Task: structure prediction
Amino acid sequence: MKYKQLTLKERYHISTLLKKGWKQKEIAGSIGVHPSTISREIRRNWDYAADAYDYSKAISL
Result:
């Protein structure tokens, strides 16, 4: 299996769809990745102070 990192554009897409109320499985289908990828991405870049996913946190990684 070939792995790839999510692009900033994909991360922004995740952020937008989460704000619209999409489920993780729906977002995964939209982007073309496994639902666990979305779950891990959200967990890694969750901003607890704002109680929201922050795609820009991934830039500093």
